[in-house]
Design brief:
- The protein is of the alpha/beta class.
- It folds into 2 domains: 243 residues, Aldolase class I (TIM Barrel, Alpha-Beta Barrel), CATH 3.20.20.70; 79 residues, no CATH class.
- Helix 1 runs parallel beside helix 11 and helix 6 runs parallel beside helix 7.
């Protein structure tokens, strides 16, 4: 069993999200209390071809440990070769196999959740990678199935368990659902209470109450937080405090949120050393952070045009001033 399951508390994972969970964001979530990191998915072919962008995506700093590199692909031998190359290059704590991505550009190459419709190939990929890396740990992430008519998470999980996979993360939606509808935690619980390896639940974990409820009701051994962390990385700090000490940590203030946003952007620019390109690529992240903030529509309009840290600092100053004025007006009313 992986060591982070040996303690008294349920480990909190940061979910792998393409274009989101880079090294900078992982470090920020680690500071907030995330226990285990998983990289955004990388192509086995990109690893084999020594693609420079792919090598950048598997970079991490020691402070991010424990961390796994997630691979996708459909050729068992190439997946195994790529996994071994990753282990030799960067020495992660585990390799994670992506059998859950619903994105068409991955599925059309028979990767990600496409393998949920081809269990013999899924088994071949998993067992080949496990044998190649033994005794190095291999984990996997799946969805409930391809669509509502073909839910097979329990079958898939048993196949992966028999193949030697150490843990299984389950997103409680089908491939066809994408990220719509509600995650089905009854199916996750069924798997968690049937297989012997730890099951990590994922889907609709938006608050501390959601997290505490799923631990209490489902039998999962870990939880994986994805989209909620994009606009609220403090959810890890709140969940950790509540689960370990029953302490309710209040939401961060708008000042603290802006301090975090600026720090994130400065770290990203320092990492990439190309301010305008980096800030342009950060716009999606800024949109996520702005969720729930005052004057959201106007704020997002400004953030979509940001190209420099200085601009972001000016937007921050105006927004904080306006927020303070709004608060004073409410108090005076």
């Amino acid at each position: 069993m992986l060591p982070w399951f040996n303690g008294p508390f349920c480990p909190l994972y940061l979910a792998p999200m393409a274009g989101v969970t880079d090294s900078v964001f992982r470090r920020l979530c680690k500071e907030q209390g995330a226990d285990v990191m998983v990289s955004e998915f990388v192509s086995a072919d990109g690893i084999i071809h020594r693609n420079e962008r792919t090598r950048e995506m598997i970079y991490f700093q020691p402070v991010e440990r424990p961390l796994g590199i997630q691979l996708f692909g459909a050729d068992p031998e190439r997946m195994a070769v790529a996994a071994q190359a990753v282990v030799e290059w960067v020495e992660p704590d585990f390799i994670d196999l992506n059998f859950g991505c619903p994105v068409n550009k991955v599925v059309c190459k028979h990767g990600g959740s496409a393998l949920l419709r081809d269990c013999p190939l899924l088994e071949k990929v998993a067992s080949t990678v496990v044998r190649k890396l033994h005794p190095f740990p291999v984990t996997a992430k799946i969805r409930l199935g391809w669509d509502q008519a073909s839910i097979n998470a329990l079958q898939t999980a048993k196949i992966l368990e028999d193949a030697g996979v150490k843990t299984i993360a389950i997103h409680g939606r089908t491939k066809d659902q994408g990220y719509s509808g509600d995650a089905d935690w009854d199916q996750i619980a069924l798997v968690a209470n049937t297989v012997s390896v730890p099951v990590i639940g994922n889907g609709d974990l938006r608050s501390v109450n959601d997290i505490a409820r799923r631990i209490r009701e489902t039998g999962v051994r870990g939880l994986m937080i994805g989209r909620a962390a994009m606009n609220n990385p403090w959810i890890f700090r709140q969940a950790r405090a509540f689960l370990r000490s029953d302490i309710v940590v209040p939401d961060v203030s708008v000042q603290e949120k802006w301090d975090h946003i600026l720090r994130h952007c400065r770290m990203a620019v320092a990492e990439n050393q190309e301010e305008e390109f980096t800030m342009a690529s950060m716009r999606g992240r800024l949109m996520a952070y702005s969720k729930g903030m005052r004057n959201g529509r106007e704020l997002r309009s400004e953030l979509q045009r940001v190209t420099k840290i200085e601009q972001l600092e000016q937007i921050r100053s105006r927004h904080l001033a306006q927020s303070e004025e709004d608060e004073l007006a409410v108090e005076a009313a």
